[in-house]
TrEMBL record:
InterPro entries the record matches: dUTPase, dUTPase-like, dUTPase-like_sf, dUTPase_trimeric
Alphabetical list of NCBIfam families matching this protein: dut (TIGR00576), PRK00601.1 (NF001862)
Sorted UniProt keywords: Hydrolase, Magnesium, Metal-binding, Nucleotide metabolism
GO MF annotation list: dUTP diphosphatase activity; magnesium ion binding
Protein's name according to its UniProt entry: Deoxyuridine 5'-triphosphate nucleotidohydrolase
Cofactor list: Mg(2+)
Pathway: Pyrimidine metabolism; dUMP biosynthesis; dUMP from dCTP (dUTP route): step 2/2
PANTHER family: DEOXYURIDINE 5'-TRIPHOSPHATE NUCLEOTIDOHYDROLASE
C-alpha cells in the first residue's frame, strides 16, 4: 500500500524496524524538550501529515519499552487517524508513573500501525442467532 506523506519534522519517515514489524515508530517533533509530570498528559506533535487510502486507517499505539520502563503510554490507545483527516499527527501521551519524564525532540514516542477496515451497513432485524456464550459478559468465558 502506498501512502502519501508530508514530513515537516527534521526526523526520518516512520519505518518498520524489522521485516515482520506491524508498527512504525513515531518521533516527537519539538522545539524544546518538555516534561510530563506524574499523571499529566500532553499532545506531542510529530510533524507528519498523511493521505491514507480509502478503507484504511492509521492506529497510534504505545511503545512497550516506554510503558514498562517509564510508565509512559498513549492515552487513547489505539488512537485512530481516519483516511479523511489531513491535519498533523499528534500523540496524546500520559505519564502513569510517580516520576517526571522528559521528552526530547526526536524521541520515539509511539508506534503507528496501518490497517484496512470494512464500512458496516446495519441490517435491522427482530432477532439474532443464539450462540453457546449467549449473553454472558465480562469474564463469562473463563473456566
Amino acid at each position: 500500500m502506498k501512502i502519501k506523506i508530508i514530513n515537516k519534522s527534521h526526523h526520518p519517515l516512520p519505518k518498520y524496524q524489522t521485516t515482520l514489524s506491524a508498527g512504525m515508530d513515531l518521533y516527537a517533533n519539538l522545539d524544546e524538550s518538555l516534561t510530563l509530570k506524574s499523571l499529566e498528559r500532553k499532545l506531542i506533535p510529530t510533524g507528519l501529515f498523511l493521505e491514507l487510502p480509502k478503507g484504511s486507517e492509521a492506529q497510534v499505539r504505545p511503545r512497550s519499552g516506554l510503558s514498562i520502563k517509564n510508565g509512559i503510554t498513549v492515552l487513547n490507545a489505539p488512537g485512530t487517524i481516519d483516511a479523511d483527516y489531513r491535519g498533523e499527527i499528534g500523540v496524546i501521551l500520559v505519564n502513569l508513573s510517580t516520576e517526571n519524564f522528559t521528552i526530547n525532540n526526536g524521541d520515539r514516542i509511539a508506534q503507528m500501525v496501518i490497517a484496512k477496515y470494512e464500512t458496516a451497513e446495519w441490517q435491522e432485524v427482530s432477532e439474532i442467532n443464539e450462540t453457546e456464550r449467549g449473553t454472558g459478559g465480562f469474564g463469562s468465558t473463563q473456566l
